[in-house]
Amino acid sequence: MKNQLYTKAQLTWLIVLRIFIGWHFAYEGLVKILNPKWTSLPYLLDSQGPVASFFIELTQDAAMVDMVNMMNKWCLLLIGIALITGCLSRIASIGGILLLIMYTLSHPSFVEASYLMPFEGSYLWIDKNLVECAALAVLCTFPTSHVIGIDRYLKNILPESFRKYKLI
């Protein structure tokens, strides 16, 4: 990314967006890690999306719920840290998009859906998860970590395959 193609204001706000989304992911992960009683079980059982049966099926095995809990907590935290530091931020953005799509498939903001845990607002199809998903897609397109972030240094030392497939 050549920063002469963007104004200072454009670059600044893209970096702020990356850091804010990173903070949100990291905070959500850390809160879940630090709360020994947190579990995804009620959320999974409350699924009403197009693949609700998949999420509900995950709850039938305690070991699977434990794995889902661990993956959710640590993926949130690691994605957040990667975005904040600009380290492998394109991979982190893609991981964040996949996680948010899973949340959306489990709990879509359909008008007729009624969940145990109320949404934070009134949504018609587009909720905060989809907005954040779109913002992560923007960050994949404009990799600001090449200007300010660890990726600036990693792009010179990681294998060619990372550059070839635009993973960094």
What characteristics describe this protein?
about 0% strand, mainly alpha, globular, about 170 residues
Descriptive notes:
The chain is mainly α. The chain has one domain. Helices cover 62% and strands 0% of the residues. The chain has eight helices and no strands. Helix 1 packs across helix 6 (128-141) and helix 5 runs antiparallel to helix 6 (128-141). The relative contact order is 0.16. The model has no long low-confidence stretch (mean pLDDT 88).
Q: What is the CA–CA distance across the termini?
A: 11 Å
Average pLDDT figure: 88
Number of domains: 1
- Share of helix, binned: 55-70%
What are the secondary-structure elements, in order, as H or E? HHHHHHHH
SS class: mainly alpha
**What general form does the structure show?**
globular
| Main sheet makeup | none
Oligomer: single chain
Total number of β-strand segments? 0
Task: Note the beta-strand portion.
Answer: under 5%
Q: Compute the gyration radius: what is it? A: 18 Å
Which parts are unreliable, with pLDDT below 50 for 5 consecutive residues or more?
none
- State the helix count: 8
Question: What is the compact description of this entry?
Answer:
It contains eight helices and no strands. It has 168 residues and is mainly alpha-helical. α1 runs antiparallel to α4 and α4 packs across α5.
SSE blueprint and pairings:
Layout: H1 8-34, H2 41-45, H3 52-58, H4 62-85, H5 89-106, H6 128-141, H7 151-154, H8 160-164
Helix pairs in contact: 1-4, 1-6, 4-5, 5-6
